[in-house]
Design goal:
The protein is of the alpha/beta class. 29% of the residues lie in helices and 25% in strands. The chain is built from 6 helices and 11 strands.
């Protein structure tokens, strides 16, 4: 089974974080959550409500953190997941996150992005020429980063799997689990 690293921070979307963590653990994989510090991150709940042009945000649960970004040794992991919410907006500027994410892309290891999670590799120029999904309002950002934006629940481009947001998590999870299985991760 794989050892999977999840990169997140405060204001990450609760379902974008919790669903993959639980699904991967259910599948027998070891999941390690990394954030800017060892303090538990404060998650938020994004929802779609009538009368709103954008999604709403409410406080969510806290997610325990296993490791600070600075202490991550990317070579210890076989896959990476970057959940959405507002956390990607600021973790993408962290030099340790850049080092970690580039490691996975340069080795063509499985990478999953959910919703706004695609902002992290996009900021590093890693989506150029690749197909990706993301939250639909990010279409222009993804295209400016050189990606081909696909409005779909489970966009697979080689070892990368992306989706638009938490409503897509069943499809995204099935696709990510297939990519992880096909990566021939040592047991």
């Amino acid at each position: 089974m794989a050892k999977v690293l999840v990169l997140t921070g405060d204001a990450a979307e609760e379902l974008d974080c919790m669903y993959p963590v639980f699904r991967l653990r259910e599948g027998g994989h070891e999941v390690v959550v990394a954030a800017p510090t060892m303090r538990a991150v404060k998650l938020v709940v994004h929802d779609f409500e009538a009368g709103w042009d954008a999604y709403t945000e409410k406080p969510g649960h806290q997610l325990p953190v296993d490791l600070a970004f600075a202490d991550v040794r990317p070579e210890d992991y076989q896959a990476l997941v970057i959940p959405g919410g507002r956390a990607p907006e600021y973790i993408r500027t962290d030099p340790d996150v850049a080092h970690i994410v580039r490691h996975f892309f340069s080795r063509d290891l499985p990478v999953g992005t959910i919703c706004h999670g695609a902002q992290v590799p996009a900021a590093m120029g890693l989506l150029r020429g690749r197909a990706t999904a993301a939250s639909p309002p990010l279409r222009a950002d993804m295209e400016q980063a050189g990606a081909m934006f696909i409005d779909g629940p489970d966009v697979v481009d080689g070892s990368m799997v992306s989706c638009r947001g938490w409503p897509d998590l069943p499809e995204w999870s099935r696709a990510f689990m297939r990519v992880l299985e096909n990566a021939n991760v040592p047991a």
